[in-house]
Amino acid sequence: MVIVTFVACDDDPTDFTPNACGPIETFESGLTANVEIHVSPSGDDGAGDGSESSPFATISRAVRDAVRGTAIRVHEGVYSGGTFLSDVRGAESAPIWIGGVDGESRPLIDGGGEGIHLSEVSYVVLHDIEVANSANNGINTDDGGDYGNVQATHHVVFRDLYVHDVGGTGNQDCLKLSGVNHFWVLNSAFERCGGGGSGSGIDHVGCHNGLLAGNSFREMSGNAVQAKGGSENIEIHGNTIVDGGARALNMGGSTGDAFFRPPLSTTSPNFEARNIRAVANIIEGATAAIAFVGCVDCLAANNTIVDPQNWIFRILQETTTHDGYEFLPAQDGYAVNNLVYFERAALSTDVNVGPNTDANSFVFENNLWYAWDDPGQSAPSLPGTEVGSIVGLDPALVTDYRIDASSPAVGAGIRLSDVRSDAVGVCYANPPSIGAFEVF
Question: Which ranges of 50-131 would DSSP assign to H, the alpha helix?
């Protein structure tokens, strides 16, 4: 797994510097618990008192006694799935931690309809837990159906999780987020969730102000990350995606009218997604690497894209104006400084453009395109405009798709004010290299 180390300057991704270099900081940074409650497979919810010597048996029982500043220490072992936690409220200076114990293996939440479900929570940190074999979602976090209330669920950190083998042949997700505001998903692994072309590693519906960094995704059916349903201001940075499904990064999508957060407006235009940013990710395989689906003002910058199976990008519109609701088309996308290493024979088209989009408003700039099986056919066919790109030169990729000093990608990008660190937190030079890694 790639560990990302750039910093958010405060706990609000609306005003942070998204890609500054240094360790990531959240509301929990520098804080320690002042109360500990212990949970163990050998514990007892009736006779236990939550101490280390007399632990509870379930997280649900431990949460009943949690106050602000509490750490629920979940000891290694196997726990049954189906944990539902509601109205868990920490504070900015005294969050509530729920997770494994330093020096022990991750506790495993095994089976159940859902492994863990958090509803109407704030200032909560879920960490160092493994979730597997649930029938539906692995971890589900939502606003309890209070779609218009941005305070229903907010300020949640998910870190160092391992969620895998969730669902079966349908739309089941490793991590399902609905109506979550101000959140972080950090240094976690997601594998084999959903099936039949559906299911996501992380699925957002109406989520706002989020950062996904340093995660790994493998063997997805639908996509690694999806953000739709009115989602806005989410950065997907420095993640590694291998076999990411139909659309490895699906910026936008298709959402039922009743599920948008905030609720749909009849007086102003609506959108599936806005200001979703895919930055410095490594994307290997997938039917399409990145899809802009009803996505407005969305960015794909400094990604390294390797061997997409059918398309490099898709520009689509699945939700159109209807029933008095105006929807903006996919428009004003920006694809810049991406390194695309592909097999020409595998692609049907470079960019799949669907109806009802404003594809000509997209801008492509300073990308490197290299068809390794036929370098002379590296030039892509693109909508909109493209300037400053490198075509047909071998990027000389080395271990883990990094570049060395011999690569034509070195120093060939353009500086963006909001793209500062690469996939592992190294500051990009000025001018930056093309792709997910600065030269080493």
Answer: 59-64
20 falls in which pLDDT band (50, 70, 90)?
A: low
Residue in the block written with tokens 């405009």? 385
372: which residues sit within 8 A by CB, 6+ positions away?
A: 341, 342, 343, 394
Q: What is the mean pLDDT of residues 266-273?
A: 98
pTM over 0.85: yes
Q: Is the pLDDT of residue 2 over 70?
A: no
Q: Give me 144's structure tokens.
A: 């309890």
Measure the N-to-C terminal CA separation of the chain; round to a whole number of Å: 19
Q: Are strands 116-119 and 83-86 parallel, antiparallel or unpaired?
A: parallel
The CA-based angle 300-431-289, given to 5 degrees, is 20
CA distance 202 to 238: 15
Q: Report which DSSP code applies to 357.
A: -
Burial of 405 (0-12, 13-18, 19+ CB in 10 A): exposed
Angstrom distance (rounded) from CA 303 to CA 119: 34
3-state DSSP assignment of residue 389: coil
Angle, CA 37 vertex, CA 35 and CA 43 arms, to 5°: 165
User: Could you give the dihedral angle defined by the CA atoms of residues 211, 272, 338 and 416, in that order, rounded to the nearest 10 degrees?
Assistant: -60
